[in-house]
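Friendly challenge for the regulars: who can give me the structure tokens for this chain first? No prize, just bragging rights.
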Amino acid sequence: MSSLRVRYQTIEFDNVDIHVRTLRDRQQFSDDDGIAEDLGISSATWPLFGIIWASGEVLAHLMFDYDIEGKRILEVGCGIGLTSLILNQRDADITATDHHPEAGSFLRQNVRLNAGEPIPFERTGWADEADQLGRFDLIIGSDLLYESEHAELLAGFIDDHARNDCEVIIVDPGRGQQTKFRKQMEARGYLHHKSLPVETTYLDKPFKGQIHKFHRQSRTSSGAT
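First reply, four minutes later:
Bragging rights claimed.
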């Protein structure tokens, strides 16, 4: 692989420090064997997984003290893995996924930087049919809806991996596909609620996006007959 320039930084969550190895900037690219190209990842989009984005910080801060007891959690499109890392520090049952062929390697190195337990990771696309993930109580992700087709693909992927009583949290920076995604989720039986982050002083700029929460409750758990 061609040489990549990286940077190391520490993200503070109250009294917890998370150390991360990221790409130095959005100019980095390395795909000597054409693996990313075969997956449909262009040179322009290749480095996006390796940067910490504002939406990812919002999701990570939300998960810092979120109720996770007894929940099996899936992070979709984990990128550099900041949210998975903070959940791992909380001893959560967290599994991470991403489409990018280098995401798993960066996640493993970041786990070691934080002296954490290994995080199960699977490289998979939302249209892939043969993953080994199973089903989850809480599914989370940030800044995932880049293209028009992503809304339906992501909603289908989430539904395929959601337990009957499942909560979904997607932090979106204000991309144009969020309404289409909401309708796709509602068509699959999920109730929707959106809100703004309570506090974002940890960001360099005001956050213009929203937190989208979806919940589908089974008839058994809701007490229906």
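Confidence is low (pLDDT under 50) at residues 221-225. Residues 53-222 form a domain with the Rossmann fold fold (CATH 3.40.50.150). Your move, everyone else.
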